[in-house]
Amino acid sequence: MLDEVCGELEGYLERPLKDVMFSGDPGGLLDRTLFTQCALFAFEVALARLWESWGVRPDYVAGHSVGELAAAHVAGVWSLADACRLVAARGRLMGLPAGGAMVSVQASEAEVLSTLRAGVSVAALNGPVSTVIAGDEDAVLEVAGHWRALGRKTKRLQVSHAFHSHRMEPMLAEFRQIAEQLSYAAPVVPLVSNLTGRTASSQEITSAEYWVRHVREAVRFADGIGELNTLGVSTYLEIGPDAVLTAMARDTLAEAGPRVLLSAATRRERSEARTLLTAFAELWTRGAAADWRSLLVRSGARPVDLPTYAFQRSRYWLETDPAALAPAVSVTPARREPASAAAADGVLSPAEVLAGLSESERVEYLRDIVQAEIAAVLGYGHPAQVDPEKSLKDLGFDSMAAVTLRNRLGEVTGQEPPATLAFDHPTPQAIATFLASRVPSVVTAGAARAESDLDGLAAGLLAAAQDATARERIVERLESLLREVSTTQAALPGDRLTDPAGVTVPSDLTDPAGLPDIEGLKTDDELFAFIDNELGTTS
Length: 539
What we know:
elongated; 4-stranded antiparallel β-sheet; two-stranded parallel sheet; 539 residues; alpha/beta; 47% helix
């Protein structure tokens, strides 16, 4: 597919695009806007078609600046020939006299708007507090300096022109003429617009004027991600040469928690094959209709029978007995389920296992989980290869890997680790110790189970109230249980005791003076009325 796209673009370029993309680019042509935008379009379209051949087809598409042109073509707005013509015209006409500047500011759009001046405008809204300004260089740098003086981070973008600003206006008339000559079709996949941050209507997306405005106006990427979240999208795949948009989208989706998966199809300076396969597996575990047969058709892979003899193996499943302390979770499980989901087969979740462990056991248990998740994120062959005392930076982490680890640990443990987890706790051991400190105590876990059991007991009592024989047996057992609680003595210090099952009981339940006078309840009806009152079942 890449050959086909590059072939369509060749008539608009002075050199074959594929040669420029893969020959080391000795002349620096890829830094020229025309080649940059054509190369991005070709790469993204080819990669999108590759994923489609593996059975992964989007429910929605979105892009960022020129990426929206690739998204629109994938959605069916233009033929490949028309899309290539528009992309090439956009890149060529943007070759205006150099000048202007673009700076990313750590501030919200509303904050930035209050400090703009003549010659500067908002060029992109990338996150809740990530706004790009563009325009005349002196004016842009002056605004950036204002924010820097307030302690906000600023970063000048390495671009040749001030895109999405008034400095693009000299090209708009000619670009409009070319856009008006193309054939448009209603998208077959909904497209979320950079211009509005909402799902584009067919009328909008099939007008030449929309694409002219697209060159000049701000890229409302963060709004578009918010729209996708509102639409219920929980799985995102970035189709591009790196994971830049994935990191930006994560900032916008920070409150969505671990239910959201953000994956990148490729990563700079990472193995292409490993990154693609990892992203494919992540989408599949989230229920995407991924076709493994299509993926592996040219690999030579084939099903094989397992050996019939005992062979060396590593166990990855959590034991049902917390005391067994199974050392790790699966690096590549068949299906990842959030820790909050109750296992149908009765297997305890990590959160439930942790509730029954001592403090030191929790740290050990969580360290094994952290090592397993780090191995999965970084592509290690086995969790044992992850040194728990080694810094995450030395293990190979970057900011995207840190975000991925935080999300995976949130899924496995049922916690919501802070976004700065990997930076505040820079070794696997430190992360495990931190996560262990956030595990509810045995007392809290036991009390929660007791309250849940009491809810069930209340329902059962009411259901059995009409059966005289059942009432008699229930009353007898309840009286016996309450006497046992009131007379049991604890070996623990302080004012708490623990029953043989390990559930800690407040001392006010063990002091006969603090208990209701059940002996004073003369009839079964009085006892049931007392129970209803205590359980809150009476109105």
